[in-house]
């Protein structure tokens, strides 16, 4: 297959590009720069997804049959703004989707997130793909994933000739993974809000890559949660790490964050308590029974592999 991968230089994108090339696909990687060194056998293009003309030129030049759209801002860097993140996450996705429709792409595979469901007190204990996406406006990444999914849903209804595989991915762990979530586990004490179990669902990075590779060719368009079996609570994670847990009432933590952020003591504001209390817990039944992929590691096994790496 001729496959175009956006966000090809990122943590996930670089693994996907190598995996697809190794499987024999004709792969083009698109990102803000050519990787050093480039991946052997892969064509690399410099493409900014916020520029609709550049995106269209890339499609015209490569004529992809399948597009794997991974370009987004997961962890904002220093100097990032909400406007920039919107342009990459939402406008960039719109440009890629428009180019798919204009150039007759057969299938688009999109890396969404469990964050698209949002962080809500009334979410079910296990969230299936039938639940609405309600990403919170106060969290840029969550809100933008919701907007992109709404865009994709409209395209499914209006332009069904473009097959879609939308992957709502849980928290990724891997041998080289260090992110905002793993930073929570590196602290001397783990934070827990009183009365909230705050369960996590984890998925190992090679499982995510394998799911995306399968999505390129498998006859299984649709929306899928991508997560390992089971959950781990903050208490269970702390026990595995041999660390104590600091349990704080939600109003106290909200008050502390409201004071600390203006002083530069933390990048998080009072809205962060929703993230700690109401994380979406992804049911992966459809991934296993309809898509046909069972993750190689459960949530607990993925955490242990990360902990002992």
How would you characterize the overall build of this protein?
It is a single chain. The relative contact order is 0.13. It is globular, with a radius of gyration of 19 Å. Helix 4 (140-158) links the parallel strand 5 (107-113) and strand 6. 40% of the residues lie in helices and 17% in strands. The strands form 3 sheets. Strands 3-2-1-4-5-6-10 form a 7-stranded parallel beta sheet, with helices on both faces. It has a two-stranded parallel sheet with strand order 7-9. A two-stranded parallel ribbon has the order 8-11. With 309 residues, it is α/β, with parallel strands linked by helices. Helix 1 crosses helix 6 (205-217), helix 2 runs parallel beside helix 3 (82-102) and helix 3 (82-102) runs parallel beside helix 4. It is built from 11 helices and 11 strands. The protein has a domain at 2-173 and 202-228 and 280-296: 3-Layer(aba) Sandwich (Rossmann fold).
Summary, kept brief:
The chain is α/β, with parallel strands linked by helices. It has helices at residues 11-22, 52-62, 82-102, 140-158, 180-185, 205-217, 234-241, 250-260, 272-277, 285-291, 299-307; strands at 2-6, 26-31, 43-46, 66-69, 107-113, 163-169, 171-173, 190-193, 202-204, 222-226, 245-248. The strands form three sheets. A seven-stranded parallel beta sheet has the order 3-2-1-4-5-6-10, sandwiched between helices. A two-stranded parallel sheet has the order 7-9. Strands 8-11 form a two-stranded parallel ribbon.
Q: What distance separates the N and C termini?
A: 35 Å
**CATH class identity of the domain at 2-173 and 202-228 and 280-296:** Alpha Beta
Structural classification: alpha/beta
The helix count comes to 11
Largest sheet: number of strands, sense, barrel closure:
7 strands, parallel
Low-confidence stretches: none
CATH superfamily of the domain at 2-173 and 202-228 and 280-296: NAD(P)-binding Rossmann-like Domain
Q: Please report which band the strand proportion falls in: under 5%, 5-15%, 15-25%, 25-35%, 35-45% or over 45%.
A: 15-25%
